[in-house]
Each structure stands twice: as C-alpha cells, then as structure tokens.
Amino acid sequence: MTIDWAALGSVFLIALVAVGVITSVFAVGVRGLAARTTARDTGASGSGGLTAAIICFAVCAAIVGYGIYLIAA
C-alpha cells in the first residue's frame, strides 16, 4: 500500500481553504445581524444588514448542502 502524498496534500489544502471561506462567510452573516440590531437601536431600518446576513447564511447552507451531496452521492 502506497500513499499518494500529493493528493493528500491537495485534499488538505482544499479543506483548509474551504473551512476558512465558510467560517468567514458565516462571520460576515453574524456581523450583518449585529449591524441590523445596532441600526434598529438607533432608529434606522437595518435592512442592509439583514439582507447581507440572509445571503451569507444561504451561501453557508448551500456549501454545507453541497458537501453532504458529495458525500452521499
């Protein structure tokens, strides 16, 4: 049995980048919700923060769903 170190390194690097991307997108979504709350406290509508949060969370859900699809298929 031999180990293909190049393929293993490639999988590791792609997984590391994917974790960074999904964590960043989720953090931006949380920041959007916080911006909405801050805007609502000052009397503004805060719709921009809510829109950003919804988009970010939808992207996160799509990435997770695609990952589950790849594992199950």
TrEMBL record:
Keywords from the named record: Membrane, Transmembrane, Transmembrane helix
Sequence intervals crossing the membrane: 6-30, 50-72
Membrane keyword on record: yes
Top-level division of the source organism's lineage: Bacteria
Protein name: Uncharacterized protein
